[in-house]
Amino acid sequence: MKKRSFKEKIIAKGAERMVMTIDEAPAYVTLEKPLEQCKVAFITTSGPHLKTDPPFNVKGDHTYRMIPGASQPSDIMITHDHYNHKPADQDLNCVFPLALLKDLAQEGVIGEVGPRHFGLMGYITRTDLLMNETAPAIARQLKEDGVDLALLSPG
Q: Domain count of the chain?
């Protein structure tokens, strides 16, 4: 019996929409100005969102939650049950270091903290929607905000 590839196994389970291909190499961009002049935003799939926002669907969610740069750790919670986030519940900087970005801006290491940051839930069953809807929407908002550098972190 022929051994099936990972892609074939996924398709056999009826999850064709999860199979994605990348037809071109990722773009690498050189920073055009010194870090101390850059506006920086943070994006993570660790499941953070404002307590006032609807929680993520832990059975699979491609959507995002916008987190204002002025938010305090006490304004934010984590909805994600596919990893142990108890340490992050005690110190949000473990997965969403917005407070550390603020410190870096105050110290002059970075120019400023972006006005919007983005939380996603890392269990994303519809990667096609992530690639075709969610990621472009986040990119548009980062561009509107004049963000020079986005830091990405998995959950």
A: 1
Residue 14 falls within a domain, yes or no? no
Q: Is residue 112 part of a domain?
A: yes
pLDDT, greater one: 128 or 10: 128
Q: Which domain holds residue 107?
A: 31-153
Strand pairing partners for 152?
A: 43
Amino acid at 25: A
To the nearest 10°, report the CA torsion of 154, 92, 86, 66: -60
| Residue 43 domain flag | yes
Would you call 102 helix, strand, or coil by DSSP? helix
pLDDT in tens, 57-86: 999 999 999 999 999 999 998 998 877 778
